[in-house]
Specification:
Blueprint: H1 9-18, H2 23-36, E1 43-46, H3 48-63, E2 74-78, H4 105-112, E3 116-121, H5 160-167, E4 173-177, H6 184-190, E5 193-196, E6 217-221, H7 224-234, H8 252-255, E7 264-268, H9 278-293, E8 297-301, H10 309-324, H11 342-353, H12 356-369, H13 374-395, E9 401-405, H14 421-425, H15 432-437, E10 441-448, E11 454-460, H16 466-480
Parallel strand pairs: 2-3, 2-4, 7-8, 7-9
Antiparallel strand pairs: 1-3, 4-6, 5-6, 5-10, 9-11, 10-11
Length: 488
Amino acid sequence: MTDFTTLSLTDLKNGYEKKDFTCREVVTSYLARMEATKALNAYVLETPDIALAAADRSDARIQKQEALSLDGIPVAVKDLFCTKDVPTTACSKMLEGYKPKYESTVTQKLWDAGAVMLGKTNMDEFAMGSTNMTSAFGPVINPVTLPGDARRFVPGGSSGGSAAAVAARAALMATGSDTGGSIRQPAAFCGIVGMKPTYGLCSRYGMVAFASSLDQAGPLTRTVADAALMLQITAGHDPKDATSLNRPVPDFVGELSAPLKGLRVGIPHEYQVEGLGADIVALWEKGRAWLVEQGATCVEVSLPHTKYALPAYYVLAPAEASSNLARYDGVRYGLRVEGATLDEMYENTRAEGFGDEVTRRVLMGTYVLSAGFYDAYYRKAQRVRRVISDEFRGVFENVDVILAPTTPTPSFAFGEEPKDPISMYMNDVLTVPANIAGLPAISVPAGLSKEGLPLGLQIIGPAFGDSVVLRAGLAVERAANFVFPQGE
């Protein structure tokens, strides 16, 4: 059987149009690849019957020359997105067996465009984590391996299952969500493209909520062009989401081809954080040179309050999580652990349903929202958020995008991860600022560490500057000519 999983999105669409192969053949090839990479634990649920039925519908449309923009394209769905009558658990025991009676807006737009759902991907429980090790279904393994090295590496989180599936060719593209870097960080660790759009550009309707003012859906793909197409389809106003932007969706795909000449790129020296690897610093310099070679101008910029983004995030996000996760009480849906009294049932259900990381963040959030601490922590964090947003706004008066590393280090091996939560949270230090300010940002694979692990460069743009972010990301991608390392 031909292995169609090596073909690009463009190759697949051209092949369908020329009738070189069918959607069923391609989907069957991906299902076989999912089976071959099952040890990665990237999927928590495979949906082969749904996939093949959708492939047949795509083949019928193509035969009638009525093809949709994503007909026959295999997509993986992060288990945070509600899929009608298909289990959606956010990888938590709390939602074990839950089958939504409605579809998320993002996935509905993909199905309306002809995309094929391969299954639901693993993730950190309720999207809380940077390693994909907090999932109730066990950790995901990064498909990247090193020659002669038996160690296996984390894929990053919380969208680690989606990133691993795309990197392992067990999906052509996947949905992810980014609250503090949960698309970009796993994309960097796995050597693929991951984009967080402007907050509100993609509807949050049907996404299991973590932190409502920070969560944003976005694509994980093999190329920037694929990310642009996926964003083109999933973006747009949704009246079912009060935070959805009511403005026209730009032509992300068409604007990719605009020249880079004259682009002003900011280099923030505050992103030279403690612990930033020498390999990543060197790649950052190389990325700067690549953009200059293609006509851009690079200038130093200052974002002095960036260092406060991470502590502010770990006040705001847990506070919102504490509120959002209060609904999981054993009464309406999901897990219920009986007790002698109603209060005991609440306690038993939440104690058994939530893992350690979720429990930690809910407790943190409840604390900062409690009487006597609300002003000292939550209100102060909101003020810091405004200062950081204003600071970005001021910088973008003089530059078009910002170039920075995505993560301070490459992926780390299982057993070598930071042992305390604070050190683990530092993984998000370079990605969190864009979430705090609601800005678009993309991670593009741009090189390898000395060991041979993928490294990503990050492009951050102003609000609604998703097109220019994609354009700059494409320039980095072309110059880097990244080759995926040995792996599954």
